[in-house]
Fold each of these.
Amino acid sequence: MVDVLSQNEIDALLAALSSGEMDAEELKKEETTKKIRVYDFKRAVRFSKDHIRSLTRIHENFARYLTTYFSAQLRTFVQISVVQVEQLPYDEFIRSIPKMTILNIFEAEPLEGRMVLEVNPNVAFAMLDRLLGGPGMAPAKIQNLTEIETIVIERIFRGTFESLKDAWKTILDISPRLEALETNPQFMQIVSPNETIALISLSTKIGDTTGMINLCIPHVVLEPIMPRLSAHHWFVSQKKERAPEEVEMLEHRVSKAKLPIVAELGDSTITIQEFLSLNVGDVISLKKPTNEGLRIKVGDKLKFIGSPGSIKDRLAVQVDEVVSEGVEEEYDE
């Protein structure tokens, strides 16, 4: 990020240059010197800014769907929003989460590989308390899940995958499926420790309880569809494809639409007095040479150039030229 100087810093810099304490030529040399950027191979950059933006858009929709889903299930105030989307090594993600947490390990065909939806214990136990008839408060001391609690937690988080499916449908039709539920991160090894992952962090508030839900997607899982995460594919995919029957019906209706067609002989300007004095046989001069074709308009757009004539004692116009799109101004006064 570029540093922005305050007004005091700018004044001090100008004063130093004026007094000779700093040399402008030296500053120029420093500016032209090659800048070296440190690159950590353990934190390989696999996702471009474009990819991160696309993932952010997808999971902002996911957060909205989750808010609706959990609000309906828990019947209380729920607010979920995307806080951050970043890339980091898988090992760093494992070390950053609590030793006892809720880890929903799942797959999403046709993507190959496993992903993780990690739910902070405060959030998970608040949901559990609410579902079992409580006010939705997390316990002071987090303990291991009982068998009944595990079943309840699994049931509610299986429903979140429908929201994930809806959020991803603009990119790919996926079928998420819960594979296992773990509570100890050390027993979960879905990729190698140095593998780069995309980590989507969702801030979650349930009543008065707050916590994080983290979605971990390894780069190796997304690699086959990386081109689809580009901005170009995102905007192209927003265009709705019409069914052949719908296109045929639309063409049929358009073909029957009526449009006014006007052939202009020309135009002229006269005074009101001259108009009132017109008699049969008078001639009005037009602002157009006689060898110039008639302008034929469809609606108010110039589309053709033609010649006047008659067919079976009726006035007619013969089309001589089709005006290309964008050339109308050539025939305007």
Amino acid sequence: MKHNLQQEFQKLYGTEAQHTFFSPGRVNLIGEHIDYNGGLVMPCAITLGTYMLTAPNNDGVLRFKSVNFKEELEAPIQNSYQKDGDSWFNYPLGVIHYFVKGGTAVQGLDMLYYGDIPIGSGLSSSASIEVVTAYAFNELFKGGFSKLELVLMAKKVENEFIGVNSGIMDQFAVAFGEENKALMLDCDTLDYEAVDSNLGDYLLAIINTNKPRKLAESKYNERVQECQTALKELQLELDISNLCELTVPIFEQFKHLITNPTVLNRATHVVAENDRVKQAAKALAANNLAEFGKLMYASHNSLQQLYEVSGAELDAVVEYAATDKNVIGARMTGAGFGGCAIALVKKDSLDSFTAGLTEYYTAKVGYAPSVYSSLIGNGVGELHEAVIV
């Protein structure tokens, strides 16, 4: 169904939208469960994302409505806000909470959100909503924040207002994304390098397992805790502040300090995955897609065996991809526990890949996946044309 968002806004609010903002979703090409361990990740912005249309009102209230959800909120302008249940509008409300607490004077605003990112799929719909709201309020109310400060604010919303111990990668990728480039981001220093990502004859297929995944209710926080346990044990003999300071050889030398086998597995994945990101950047820079594809498979195997965050659905996607001669790499992406996988598929073979995967996956899982193709797109910004999506 096509949505003319300007018409939707007019219908809901009885006035024309004055501004339209967009923030993409993201996929992480490689470097999973690394962001909260201070290492290297390689996300890219995609061309699916969140649209936010706004118009001022004279009623002194903030109105939140969505094309995707029935829940809506009308909140008076005040000095702080609190999370209200589990509704979608908590993400923008959290952003506004930090704006007003920081002293930015906001005025009445009518807002309409629409996202074409599959919700709960692991493509960062929440970060997309947070960043588009932060960017919009910064522009509309002259907040004076840099883009990096907006990213850090959005992360604070996720961690403190919503209550999910996620790292910086999602918000950073959707804010700083560049067309046809992956971002090799150091999650400890926030230094990043835009890596040319010429996919040549291949495209990025995004496969939604269609298994619902609620991050706050998943075992995500458990994995964070396990990594912190590994770090504390290694710090008995090593002067380090995060796991990703370790090279593979140094980790091998000191891993005996980790007493629990499960915790050891988690740390082994983290250190090796951080090294894979470095190898992946070299492969992409050399335009060696075959090598990059091998690293994707290795990443998935580690996430499946050592980190235990994949599951039957994600594994079925990668199993099928490994049998298709037109695929050179595949892996789960995002936090796992359902959500999405990605695959590098020959452009002229996407239809046959989709048909073959759907048959294999449905037989194994009991329902069909959804397959999207995406370009690598730009980060958050204001749009200056009517949007029909």
Amino acid sequence: MFDLDPVPSIISFDCYGTLVQWREVLLAEFDELQTRTPGGIRVDSATLLDTFSCFSRQFERDRPHRLYKEVFRLSLKNALDQYGIGYSGGDFERVAESIKTMGPHPEVPGVLRKLRSRYKLAIFTNSDEDLIVHNVERLGVPTDYVITAERAQAYKPSRQIFEYAHKAMGVTKDETVHVAMSMILDMQACHELGFRGVWINRLGQAGNPDWLPYVELPDLTGVPKLLGIEGQAA
């Protein structure tokens, strides 16, 4: 049973992957990018996405802080170069612009509406101000706080972005619950900083017992019940 003592006042979420269809959109974009270079080297798009993500974490640690738009393009270029996949400058722009089109997973709007009946909602995201605004709008549910890496000048899993967020919202970590899909970027931080986490395991992956405690759910459908909200219309 999830511990609601102390009772949280804010439920925070990761955005990309947790709330919106990050993986689905990028896999489609990577497939299309490779289709546009007939006869060239082809790599499974899931493998390409994993490589892209590894480069992203590397560039996100750089100082001074890089905007995510730069991180994204550098990571994509390095991933494509690693496998010898051909590309043009226009490919970077097309894939990068796809971020703005990412809408919610099917269950997300209804879940957020239920949670708003009792809690304030926040998003902590490894993104820029002018990118995340498009995804928040596509959720179709008002969000009380949106904390970006650009504003905090740090990317998850750095404690800096979480501490910045809690200070900006005027709460302690004990007054929050964080809901996220990434074990590395989010559940690790929940464990190390000592606040409650809910892992959304959409891909059926193995968790990390070193970063317990966290509650595992396959998607957001069970979050309202977990947080004490049952039987209310979405």
